[in-house]
Amino acid sequence: MIPSSAITAAPFWQEGSVPTLPCHPLPAAVDVLIVGGGYTGLSAARETAAAGLSTLVLEAGHIGTGCSGRNGGQVAYSLKPSFARLSVLHGRERAHAICREAFEATAYLRSLATRQGVDCDWQECGGFYGAHTRRHFERMVQEAEHQPKGLEQRISVVPKASQRDEIATDYYHGGCIYHDDTSVDPMKLLLALLRRAMDSGAIISDRCSAGSIRTAGGDFEVLTSKGIVKARKVLIATNGYSGPLSPWIARRVIPIGSYQICTERIGTEQVRALIPNGRNISDSRRVVVYYRPSADGERIVFGGRAALSEPDPLTCVARLKTMMTRIFPQLRTVRIDHAWAGWVAYTFDTMPHLGEREGIHYCMGYCGQGVPLAPYFGMKIGQQMAGLAEGRTALDGLPFPTRPYYRGKPWFLAPSVWAYRTLDQMGL
Ligand SMILES: Cc1cc2nc3c(=O)[nH]c(=O)nc-3n(C[C@H](O)[C@H](O)[C@H](O)COP(=O)(O)OP(=O)(O)OC[C@H]3O[C@@H](n4cnc5c(N)ncnc54)[C@H](O)[C@@H]3O)c2cc1C
C-alpha cells in the first residue's frame, strides 16, 4: 500500500514553474479572442498578434491546467489513422498530404526548439516501441519494412535477443526504435509558447473562463468570469476540457483521462541501467503505456490509461505502479513522488480537426498526441484567422464527425476499453 500523503498530486513538470500572470482588466473589445491557454491557444495567439490583430487569450485555470502542462513530453509522428486507411477515405494524394502535415508538425517543433530559442529541454532521444506479443513483433517488422513511399521514418528492428540494449526487461518480444522521436519538458514548452505569444503582443488572462459566446451584429460577445468582451473573431482551443461552451464541439470530442506517476529521484546511473539510451518507451498494446526518463535523467515518468474518468490521480497510483513494476520489477521498492491526470480529446475519426463553423473557429482533437500537433495546428488556425495563405492545411474541410445520441458524456468508453484490454490480454 502506498501512503498517498507522501505523494504530490501535481505534475512533476510544474514543480516551482507555475507563473503568476499580471492581472489586467480585460479589454472591452478585441480583434481575436481565444478560449484555452494551452499549446493550441497560445500558438494561435502568437500568429494573430504578430499579424497585427489585437488578441486576448482566456485560460480558465492557471497556465498549465490543461494537458499542455501535464503530458508525457513524448514527440513522435502523431497521426493515428494509417496512410492506407486515409487513402481509402480521401484518395492517395490527399492521404499523402495529410500524413506529410504530421511530419511538418514535428519539424515545426524541432525548429522552434533548435533554431528559434524555444527552451523546452529538447532531446533527440529516439523512441523504443516494445512488442507485447510475438505476433505484434512480426507486425511491427512488416510495417517497418513496408513504409509508404515518401512517408518513411528511420526505424531499426530490435529482436528480443538484443532488447536489453534498449531496455532492462524481458517483458517485450523485441520491438522497434524510431530514431526521429524526441522528448521535451512539456511545461517548459508551454511557458516558452506563452512568452512568444506575449512578446507578439497578445494579452493572456488566466483564471478567467469563457461562459458563453453569442453573435452581436456580425461580431461576437463573450461572457467571461471577468466581464463581457466583444470580439471580431473567436477561437475555441479547449481540447479535452471543452465542457458546455459549445454544444456542437461537445458532440464531437471525447474527453478521456490519462494518468502519470513520477518516481522519486533514483539517480542517472539507475535510470541509465533501465533505459540505456534514454529513449521514450511505449508499446504495442491498444491500452497503451508510455514512459521515459525525466529531462534531468534522474527519475522515471510513467503514464497510461489507468482509469477512464477518475478525477483523483492518487486513486490510480497503485494501478500505475503495478503496470510499471511488471515491466521493471527493479522499481518495486522505489517511492512515487508525483501523480497527476489530464483530459485528452479523442475524436470519432481519430483525426485532429481545425476550421470554422458559424463564424467560430476551432482547433482540437489530437487523440492524446498533441505535443507536436497542437503547437503546429494552433499556428495554422491562427494564420487562417489572420487571413494568411500559409495557414492552409491538408486537413481543411474534413468533416468533423459525431455519433447519434452523443452529447459529451462518453457512455461507450468503459465497454470499449474493457474490450481493448481483453484483446491485449489475449495477445491479439
Ligand atoms: C497525462 C497526459 C500525457 C500526455 N502525453 C503526451 C505525450 O507524451 N505526447 C503527446 O504528443 N501528447 C501527450 N498528451 C496530449 C497533449 O498534452 C495534448 O494533446 C495537448 O497538450 C493539447 O493541447 P491544447 O492546447 O489543445 O489543450 P490543453 O493544453 O488541454 O488546453 C486547453 C485549455 O482550455 C482551457 N479551457 C477549457 N474551457 C475553458 C473555458 N470555458 N474558458 C477558458 N479556458 C478554458 C483549459 O483550462 C485548458 O487549459 C498527454 C496528455 C495527458 C493528459
SSE arrangement:
Elements: E1 29-35, H1 39-50, E2 55-58, E3 74-75, H2 83-90, H3 92-115, E4 127-130, H4 134-145, E5 155-158, E6 175-178, E7 182-183, H5 186-199, E8 203-205, E9 210-216, E10 219-224, E11 227-236, H6 247-250, E12 253-263, H7 268-274, E13 280-283, E14 289-293, E15 300-304, H8 317-327, E16 336-347, E17 353-357, E18 360-364, H9 370-385, H10 413-425
Parallel strand pairs: 1-2, 1-11, 2-8, 4-13, 11-18
Antiparallel strand pairs: 3-7, 4-6, 5-6, 9-10, 10-11, 12-15, 12-16, 13-14, 14-15, 17-18
What class would the helix/strand composition place it in? alpha/beta
Strand percentage, roughly? Answer: 15-25%
Helix content: 25-40%
Shape: globular
- Alpha-carbon distance between the termini? 32 Å
DSSP strand count: 18
Question: For the residues shown, what is the average pLDDT?
Answer: 94
Poorly predicted runs: none
Radius of gyration: 21 Å
Q: Give the cofactors and ligands.
A: flavin-adenine dinucleotide
Order of helices and strands: EHEEHHEHEEEHEEEEHEHEEEHEEEHH
Tally the helices.
10
Largest sheet: 8 strands, mixed
